[in-house]
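Researcher: Here's my situation. A collaborator sent me these components and asked whether they could plausibly form a single complex. I don't have experimental data yet, so a predicted model of the whole assembly would be a useful starting point for our discussion.
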Amino acid sequence: MTSFLRSREAILAAAILALLVLISSRFPAFVEPGNLARVFTDTSPLILLALGQTVVILTRCIDLSVAANLALTGMVCAMLNAAYPGVPVAVILILALGMGAVMGMINGLMVWKLKIPPIVVTLGTMTIYRGLIFVLSGGAWVNAHEMSAAFTGFPRVDILGLPVLAWIAILVTGLFFLGIARTPLGRAFYAVGGNPHAAVYTGIDVGRTQFMAFTISGMLAGLTGYLWVARYSVAYVDIAGGFELEVVAACVIGGISIAGGAGTILGTLLGALFLGIVKNALPVVDISPFWQLAISGTAIIVAVAFNSRSGRSKGRIILKRAEGHA
Amino acid sequence: MTDIADHQQAPRRIPDRLQGPGARLLKSWELLLFLVAVAIFTANSFASPYFLNAWNLSDATFNFTEKAMIAFAMALLIIAGEIDLSVASIIALCSTAMGAAVQYGAGTPELVLIGLVTGLACGAFNAVLVTKMGLPSIVVTIGTMSLFRGISYIVLGDGAYRGYPAEFAYFGQGYVFWVISFEFVLFALLAVLYYVLLHRTNFGRMVYAIGNNATAASFSGIRVARVKFILFLLTGLMSGIAAICLTSRLGSTRPSIAFGWELEVVTMVVLGGVSILGGSGSIPGVVIAAFVMGLVTFGLGLLNVPGIVMSIFIGLLLIGVIALPRLWAMWRH
């Protein structure tokens, strides 16, 4: 328990609590359960993507293509729904998961088999996936009136006071908590990131583990793609533009070491919530939303400076030896 | 037999060309890239009757000159094993600072000075965080990328600065001689300067040494932190210069100026044969890559291909030029 109190998760949780207290002292309405639930729901897409990004970063990689993957999958789902309104949501969910996973696999295969540095691969696929949206849609928007009620309604269906979108985020977070601690793959993510050489000697295929991480990240991006488009009832080329950096930011603030092998699911969750609360609180406390970018930038720098102090000797950067020597 | 040959070959590898199994192919990287450039040039001149026109070609250079200026400094930084993703945001902040100064009646010399100093200050900020505090540059510069542009957004919101003095327009719109623009001359001059710096000075050798093995470099008496500090300063300075050119060319400043350029600059550097893992690369490679990217975007533009579709080509080019030699090497084994 004392070790938890000194951990960065505890400090981050305390920072979030302090933030909430500070806001509530002037604007008590912000911390009402109903509003907090709304903030959580609004942060759910970020949580989902950040969880996927976490396992990628744990294996010393980075996935900059998640936002483009999200947007492409979202557009395909929206266009499918506009063309065939009868297709059930379950099919669309499977399609979104599958499409996202395939895009993640493409990243993963290039990292695994061709040993191309992850930052180069995902920089490339980021522009390719984003460009494909334009090729598919011709630059046109898919608007609310073209989507079926079932399609747009699904993420908003209310279960026990929370919309499905929030429940999915909770469910996936739970799966990650279990998966990362209780499955061989979950432990392999840490092993690969912590010491790729040692991982090889213990029989872990470094490349394959990184491939799995990219697949998971892609799958979640795809799922979020459908949920995003359905929630906002619109799909166009630029949706979630630049979101990949917010996702990486959530991980970094949550204490995921960019050098790989260090960090927790709880940390990522808190990192995402921190950004989500800041984003939602700004308009409430009457600060121009234009401050948000600078605030999250400062938060990233403070967080990484703080992380490096609490966890020394984790200083190898992701660019240098990202693919290990397997 | 081949094993023995490999072993004999290994010690003779020059450190800055050390690239594993693809070494031989990579040695001719600039040649390969040059052939790609020639092919694109030829294809373009067949595809569009408007391509082979001095003024059109001159216009095309504006597609890459500003980005290439940053790419030179970025190449050195990446060779040294670091990266700066905040360059586009530095442009935004420099441009905002210059725009704000205009409102107080600053003249052209003051504007240039403000642009350069702001760029240097941003570079120094990154440098301190990376070299003094020992933080990973990729995270630091993702942070400062948000911070610098964030400051621009705080200052400008959804507004814009205009009203730059008439002489200020020369940097981005002026021509030195016939179709040769000021920007192109500056680009060529900087290319030569960076070529000399990287390939003909001690400093350049230090950059390679650090990128190949920072610990060994440190034990050889190279002040690693200081070299990296200078490289971040240079990258900031080049972003300041690019900001002056771009602001002058556009004649206005919005906080979204140069959005997404950091990725194009990195793409240009990697396309130019600089290893993202550090330790190898050359300035001629980056110069040719700049032309390739400029020609692709301009040629496709003449064919009415929308910008976002061009980015697919750039993305494919980036992955393709790196993947193909590796596929080739795999296929041979």
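Model: Some features of this prediction you could bring to your collaborator: Chain A touches chain B through 51 residues (CB under 8 Å). Residues 206-232 of chain A form the longest helix (27 residues).
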